[in-house]
Automatic annotation (TrEMBL):
E.C. code: 6.1.1.21
UniProt keyword annotations, A-Z: Aminoacyl-tRNA synthetase, ATP-binding, Cytoplasm, Ligase, Nucleotide-binding, Protein biosynthesis
Main localization category: cytoplasm
Subunit details: Homodimer.
GO process annotations (BP): histidyl-tRNA aminoacylation
Organism of this sequence: Qipengyuania marisflavi
Compartments in which it is found: Cytoplasm
Boundaries of every Aminoacyl-transfer RNA synthetases class-II family profile domain copy: 1-326
Protein name as it appears in the record: Histidine--tRNA ligase
GO MF terms held by the record: ATP binding; histidine-tRNA ligase activity
Amino acid sequence: MSSKKPNKTPQAIRGTQDIFGPDAEAFAFVVETFERVRKLYRFRRAEMPVFEKTEVFSRAIGETTDVVSKEMYSFDDRGGESLTLRPEFTAGIARAYLTNGWQQHAPLKLATHGPLFRYERPQKGRYRQFHQLDAEIIGAGEPQADVELLAMADQLLKELGITGVTLHLNTLGDADSRDAWRGALVEYFRAVQGELSEDSQERLEKNPLRILDSKDRRDQKFVADAPKIDAFLSDEALAFFEAVTSGLDAAGVQWTRAESLVRGLDYYRHTAFEFVPDEGSEAAGLLGSQSTVLGGGRYDGLMESLAGPATPAVGWAAGIERLAMLCNGTGCEQLEVAIAAENSDREGEAAEMAAAFRYAGFSTEVFASGSPKKRYDKARKAEPAILISLDVRDGASANNLSALDQDYQREADAAEIFAARTGG
RNA sequence: GCGAUCGUAGCUCAGUUGGUUAGAGCGCCGGUUUGUGGUACCGGAGGUCGGGGGUUCGAGACCCCUCGAUCGCCCCA
């Protein structure tokens, strides 16, 4: 919107959001549930800076990835150093782990959440400033770590009340398995190169694994018969994957094998996973095409890219906005007590009574502004469990308490406070 | 970076093949009615129809440009 007016209200930055109302309640509900669940699994809370030296991300994530090559918010600070707003958590966590000597706590279970930044075109479920939950287990190379991490993710989704979402699981094998598989895929797709989509012809050079989850029909007919990772897995890699899957079964985590699931970033090895809405489910409809709600995997090579010791690790991240879309309507709690001061002489008492209710642990709202005659209706429209009217009739105080919600449990306690305050 | 759709009151939206002074509902403010009650009625504030240019006797509507939003591709949570 261009305008000659000098004092036009500035607009928010593209891809940023002002979250309010039910959306904000759902957002808070997601974060609160995550905090509760991570404590059950004894993941320790950590806070990292929102920005880092650019090289933290370019080295850890990979120069050639889209995230680094075209999606980072980078800028020079006043000393001329290139800094970047974090596009993901893992690289910063790895840096913190190394610079703070957190090796002493290994194996370390870490959880955090907060804003991330990526310069992309916004669309449904995707923003330039977005928010993620993040959980990592660092310094644990055993498949049990993958299982515990996934069990936590699964419980989180259940506690959020999210249904119609299942765990898609794959293995990328160890470095050798992955390289051999990649070579076979390149060979296979090169043979039919001319029939692939334009995007996939390019992927063949840059990131052949990505062809496997192409949405283009021209690609999909070849994907079905493409070489499978299973044929290239070393004995160790196979044993690792079997330990993960049997551990998930033992923990009661539902999963499905997704042979063409590959993760975008270079550092993933072995386990790769995503929680994705089932086709045709309500969740799928709510999310649009940005459907992955939680994703991650094992990244055994990451620490070395930051000049640290070889350190096995697994982690996942989940988009808070996407999770919140799936649990809208939850998190918004009912108003317990509404107090309508229907006469301006009662406004002071209404405030005092509200304080009494609030100290007793009742969520309370006072209606004492605007036309006195319309305050009762306003209070009523707030749909409280208990509605209290303070009025003046024939020169004397007139008080009334009515219970509007039949199922409300604390009515007797509320009535007691009301009676004590009104001398009745 | 590419593509599609869309910008009218604080919000949700009408607005006919271009035709007087741009409307409704909700919300907000005030009044009348009611007087232990989610009432009804009346009134008010609030819009250079995203911005600029063009076509026309006449543009909210048609054309071009621009800004913005939404959704999709790429990529990803």
